[in-house]
Design brief:
Chain lengths: 461, 394
Amino acid sequence: MELFVLNKNEIIKKLCDIIGKEFVSNKSEDLFIYSQDPGVSDPRPVDFVVMPKTVEEIQKIVKLANEEKIPIVPMGGGMTLSGLVIPVKGGIVLDMKRMDEIIEINESSRYALIEAGVTTGKLQAYLEEHHPNLEVSIPDAPPSVTVAGNALIHGSGFLSQKHGDHGSMINGLEVVLPNGEVCKLGSCALSKYWFTRGPIPDFIGLFISSFGTLGIATKLSIKLYPKPKMRYLVFGLCKDPKVLPNLIYNITRTDLAEDILIGIQDKPAWMKGYVVIMVYITGDSEEELDSKTKLLKKIYRKGKARYMKAPDRYYDIFLEKPQFAAKAADFRKGGGFEYVGAFIPLEKIPEIIQIGNDISLKHGIIPTMGARFISKTHSAMFFISYSFNRADPKDIENARHALHETNKEVLNIGGIPWKSELEGQKLILQKMDPNYKMLLKTIRSALDPNGIMNPGNWEVN
Amino acid sequence: MTLETEQDWKSIVHRCFRCGYCKFTHSYSDFNCPSYKKYRFETYSTGGRMWLIFGLINGDIQWSQNLSNVLYACTTCGNCVENCRFEKFNSFIVDFIEAARAEAVKAGFCPEKQKLLLERTMNSEMFNPYGEQNSDNADLKKEYDLPDNAEWVYFIGCTSNYRQKKLRDATLRLLKKAKIDFTLIDEHCCCSPIIRTGQITPVKDFIDYNITQIKKTGASKVITSCAGCYRTIKKDWLKFGAEYEFEVLHTLELVKQLLDDGKIKIKSEYNKTVTYHDPCHIGRHVGLYEEPREVYKQIPGINFVEMKRNRENAWCCGAGGGVKIGYPDWAVEISKERVEEAKETGATVLSSTCPFCRTNLSDANEKHELGLEVIDLIEILDQLEIEINDSNLI
C-alpha cells in the first residue's frame, strides 16, 4: 500500500478545511503524546492528530484517508495500556473525545444513547444527578475512559457478573464504515428506539474487539440497569486456590452477588498466601443486606473459605465506583503497569494463579493478580499485572517479557488474552482456526479495501 | 517531602500514569481543568504536561516555542493537585509545571507576553508587573495617618494598588475602622507573577527587600487582601529560602477572628443574594474554604448561595499562572463560564477575596454583559455599618 500520496502540508490543510485548524495538529508535542500510552509498548510515530465534532466530519476524514491512503486510528480514552491506539503504520489518530453528548436517556427501556466520546465518568455522574434510579456498568478504569471504547474492547465492570460483559450491553451502534458511509446497527437501523440488537442479523459483534479495524463508532446505545438502594461488600479469604471454582460457582448459584472479584497479591504482607474474595451485595434495607451477608458467610464456610471483617478503609476503597485500579501504576513508584487480562474458564482459576505467581517471581515483580467473574461463571477476566518504572528501560523490557510469557501460557491453558497488544494478537492468530482467520480477512478486505483502518492490528497474512 | 533541588522533581515526574483523574471535578460530571477543557488534546491535560516534562528530561523531545506554550497554557489552578490520586506526587504537580517553566526560561523559550512581567517587575521605576510607576505608599500613609512602626503591615499587593484601588481603599478603611494598629511599606512585587511564570532569577532579592521593609516597621503580622500575595508570602517565600517570623493573614481571616471574638459586629443589612468564588490561591493552594463563608454568613440580611462547583471543586477564574497576560481572550472565556455559573444560582452579587479574580470576573461580566455585581468581600464589609466593641482589638 502506498501511503501519503500528498505531502503532509497538503493533508494538514485538507484536515483543517474539514474540522478547523483548532482541532488538527501535527505539532511535535502533540504527536509525542499520542505516539505512546501508559503501557509497555514502544512509542510509534503519529503523523496527525484530529478531534472531530460531528459524524459528517469523520465521514470526510475517512474519504480523504481513502483517497490518500492514510491510516486512521480511532481513539477513546486511550487507556487500553496495550498500545491499541498507537498507530502501527503512522497516519491519523482520531481522538473522539469532543463527541461527548449524552443524547438520550430512555428511562422505561433503560438505555443511554450517547456519542462515542462520552466518558464513563460523565455518564455515571449524569445518571446520578438526573436519573438516580438507573446505573450503568463501568469498568475499574479511570473515569476518563469512554463508554464506547470500553464496550468495544469487550470491557467489563461492576454489573458484569449479573449482566455480562460491556460488549453484550450494547443495544445499538452508529458506525462510519471504512468507505465513509454511515451505518446504523441494531434496532436503530429501522426504529427511532435504540433498545435492542435484534431480532435482525446482529453485526454489532463485528465491531467489538476488532480495535477500530472495521469502522469508527460514533454513537452507541448502552443498557442501563435499576440502581439498588444499598450496596455492600462481603469479604472472604481462602488459602487454597483450588477451592475457588466450586466456591464461586456456589455463590453464583444463589443469585446473591452483584459483582464478584478475587485478589491475589504478595503485598501488603497479610495478603501473601491468601486469595481475597469480594462479593458485592445489594438490597433495599439493612435487613436484606444482613441476611445476604449471613448466607454468604455460610457459603464461605462450606467452601473452605472464611468471612473476613476488613477495616473500614477497605470498604471505602473497594466500594468506590470506579475503583482506583490505576493505583498499580505506582507500585514501583514508576508510573507504569500493564496486565494480561485473560478470559478463562472458571475451572482454570487455580492454574492461572500459579502461572501468574511463577512468571511474576521469575521477573522479580511482586505478584499482583485478580479476577472479575462475568455473567455468573460463563467466564472470568483474570488479570496478571506487571508494574514497572517508566524511567527505567530495563524495567519496561522486563515487564514486556513477562506479559509475552503470560500471553503464551494463557493460550496454552485454553484462555484468551484480552485487548492484546500486537505481539499478543500474533500469538492469538497463530492459534486461531484458519477459517476464522480467513473470515476475518475476507470481511476486513471487503469493508476496507484500502487497509486504512488501524492497520497492523489483527493482521492476517 | 519537599522539592528542594532540581533533582527532586526530575526524579519523580515520571510517576504520572496519565490516568486523567486530574481533568475532572470530584464527581466526574465535568472537566474542571481549564486548559484541557479548552484545547482537548491530551497534550493539554496535566498528564500530557507531565509526560512532556519527562520527555524533555529524557531528551525524547526538544524545547520549542509550541511546547513551551503548552506548559504556559495552564492557570496553575491546582484542580489536578486536588484530583490526582497518586499520593506524595499529587501535591507537587503545580511545582513541576512552575519548575518546567523555569527551565523554559533558561532555555530561552519563555513566551514574549509573559516576559513583560519580569521586565516591568525588574524596572526600578516600577517594581510591579503592571508597568505602573512604583508607589512607595507614602501618600497613603499620610492620608490614613499611619505610623512608621506598627503591629501589623498591610501588604497591599500590585493588583490592589494599581488595578483594584477600590479594594485597597476598602481594606484601609476597614482596618482603620477596626482600630488595627497597622502601617504600609514601600513594597515591591511579592513576585507571584514571575514565580508562576518561571522567571525566578530576581525573586530572592525581592523577597529580601520586602522582608527588610516589613522588619523595619517592627510588625509581627502581615495582612493582605490579595489571594496571590497571601499564597506567595505564606508558601513561596519560604520555598525560596526566606526566613521571617511574622504571621501572615488574609484580611478575611482577621475579619473572621474579630467577628468570632465579638470585637466587631456588623450592624447594617446587606439584602442581596451573594455567591462566593473560591480563589485558587487561597482555596486549593492553601485550603481556606470555610473561613470566607463563615464571614459572609455573619452579614445580616445576606442570602448566601453556592455555585455548583465550589470549594475544592471550584472552577478557576482563569487569570492565574500568567494566563491573563499570555492568553487574555481565553482568560476571559474561562471567567465567563464562572460568571454564568454564578448567575445560575440566582445570585445578583458574585463576590470573592482576590483582586486578580475580581479583575478577570469583572472583565467577563462586562464583556458579555452578564449583569452581575462583582465585588470583593472586603468591599461589601466596607459598605456596612460596623460596631466596634473593644478599642484594644488585637
